[in-house]
Amino acid sequence: MRILLDTDVCIGAGQCALVAPDVFTQDDDGFGTVVPGGEDGGGGGDGPLVREAARACPVQAITLDA
Question: In whole angstroms, what is the distance from residue 9 CA to residue 40 CA?
């Protein structure tokens, strides 16, 4: 699964990093980012957790492509 995080939409709520910390983190400014290697769902990320992180985003900044 490919993970796209729209940094222009992200408000830094941090729900993605809380739900799937192996795939998402927050940058120095507090905005969400995908950990290196996590763009394809890797980085030890679990598919269901990544989907839940996308659902948990209050501004729908995360898009998942199968």
Answer: 20
